[in-house]
Amino acid sequence: MRLATIIITILCSSIVFSQESKLYFELEISKHIKAFNSFSERAVSNNDANGALVLFDSLVKTHLKNTYVSEMVLKKVNGGKFSTSKIKNPFLLITKSEWEQISQKEIEAINMMSKLYKGQIDFVILFWTSKAIAKKRSSGFNSLITVTFVDERQNNADHIVKSYKHSFGAPSCFFISENKQLINIDRKFTENFNLVNIEEAFKSTHEEIKSIISRKQAFNVDLPKE
Q1: At 173, is the secondary structure helix, strand, or coil?
Q2: By the 8 A CB rule, do 178 and 89 touch?
Q3: pTM for this entry
Q4: From 222's CA, which of 36, 55, 105, 183 has a CA 20 to 30 Å away?
């Protein structure tokens, strides 16, 4: 009953989208993450893991889904800079922590998906660590995947760190449309791809990707000529 009351409170405080306005992910997460963390920690302390998951789903669906993602300019491990504003396709932003050792299973899965959806979906890996560590841990990814990093010690990307790392932690996977709207957040992306039955892990991710592709195709339908 208590969980239901919390969810109703979150839903009632949602902001209705309109054609004239754009809500941005970074602003919305800053407005709602404190309350979410408080409710979530309470659920976890009560051994209610499912309740914490329900709260997260409610936060995403009520406040974050379809918000716009501001441009991110990231450093690439192979040199140079990468801007998300230049991406023409929908893309997956997969964040990785400094301490995380990426399994071969996950690398193979991401490589496979990048080939399967080449030209339709882009893949961006973002490491929260130094260039040297990011480059070493990303050596197995193929050339279709853009690998970037943010080193917090350089203090030059605080807005990115705050929104994408401190809010949800890492690893996480952000599904973003071609017009830079957030479609979903998967905090179990890495965990799922380390399962024994990797086919099950593929299933949920592929369904999400196919949904994004269908969405893109719907937006790109040619309008009748006058």
Answers
A1: strand
A2: yes
A3: 0.82
A4: 183
